[in-house]
Amino acid sequence: MSKKIKIGELDRFDLSILQILQGNNRQPHAAIAEKVGLSTPSVQRRISRLEERGVIRGNVAVLEPALMGNPISAVIESRLVEDRSIVMDRAKRYFRDVEEIQQCYFVNGGVSFIIIMISRDLQHFEQLVRQHFADNQDIQTYRTLIVLDQVKTGLNIPLFARDEK
User: What is the pTM of this model?
Assistant: First the structure.
């Protein structure tokens, strides 16, 4: 595997390409090349290098949960029964395998995990909470927060803010 790229190794062309891809990664390379002022082969090589070195982790279709039958979103805070590595690692593996968990963050500050989970309806949500939290031997406490409005969601990373100092 190639070595990872550090942010300082990315030039303005790489950053421009990444900014464009974050908005729409299905744009033809020729269109990207025209926007950034490079040749199409050069853009193709740069994108391949960014993928090989792990800057671009993947290309996915982002689906609308409600249209796919999962209109309920919740934020769940959970605390482990103990802070031993074996318990932490077991919980991480467990949560990675739960389909309805979209995001899982191992955090500090009084809770162990912050989880974003989707469900079909409130009955399904209750079933998931019972199965994955209430009856989970590694969970000491948990708190569920039903999302009323997704004000902002996304994965875009600001690329040019660091230059504006």
Answer: 0.84
From CA 34, how far away is CA 43, in angstroms rounded? 10
Cβ-based neighbour number of residue 145 at 10 Å: 10
Q: What is the pLDDT of residues 69-101, one digit of tens each?
A: 999 999 999 999 999 999 999 999 999 999 999
Rounded distance between C-alpha atoms, residue 81 and residue 114, angstroms = 15
Contacts within 8 Å (CB) and 24+ apart, 114-119 = 114/75, 114/76, 114/77, 115/75, 115/76, 115/77, 115/78, 116/73, 116/74, 116/75, 116/76, 117/73, 117/74, 117/76, 118/65, 118/70, 118/72, 118/73, 118/74, 119/70, 119/72, 119/74
Beta bridge partners of 101: 117
